[in-house]
Amino acid sequence: MSGVCPAALRGLTQTLTGPFFFLSLSPVSDTFFTRVTLLTEKTPALVALARQCRHKCVEGTVDEEEAELWVTDVFTPHLSLVYSSMPAEKVKAEVLHKVSKSVDDAGVVTGPSAAGAELGGWKGGRVALVQTWGELDQWKVIAERVL
Fold first, then answer.
1. Do the beta carbons of residue 41 and residue 23 sit within 8 Å?
2. Percentages of the chain per state (helix, strand, coil), in multiples of 5
3. Which of 2, 14, 17, 22 has its CA 20 to 30 A from that of 44?
4. Model confidence, pTM
5. Three-class SS of residue 23?
6. Which residues of 39-66 are buried (b: 16+ CB within 10 A; e: fewer)?
């Protein structure tokens, strides 16, 4: 699998030039690694990359049809702001307001006006495919690419 994943990323990341715009601060999620996120645009280039990674890089067999269903129904591009094992209700009560204030204080802009704002998204950086099973210190970068 390890040789296939970098190859899956190679051509597709060439189209990820950005900028990528922030849509909104997400509601608190029930999952550890998406507890609080900034949702980003679901661009055709991101969808193509996610579909290819799901098809080529997930352990076990994911055929093209399954990958297409996943990218349509499940894939939600985002920038994670909080990882937490605290219960979602506790995150809502104790953390969300602080994160929202920090995002606002930093000047991050979401929604329709994000396209014209200095901190309404980003361009450049890197994209990484990370195996997220187990504890955080056990996560493994399978493939990455500078944009």
1. yes
2. 45, 20, 35
3. 2
4. 0.77
5. strand
6. bbbbeebbeebbbbbbbbbbeeebeeee
Burial of 117 (0-12, 13-18, 19+ CB in 10 A): middle
Cβ atoms 27, 125 nearer than 8 A: no
Digit-coded pLDDT (tens) for 13-57 = 556 666 778 888 988 999 888 899 999 888 888 888 888 888 887
SS3 140: strand
Q: Please state, in angstroms and rounded to a whole number, the distance separating the CA atoms of residues 22 and 2.
A: 31
Give the separation between CA 88 and CA 95, rounded to whole angstroms: 10
Residues in the chain: 147
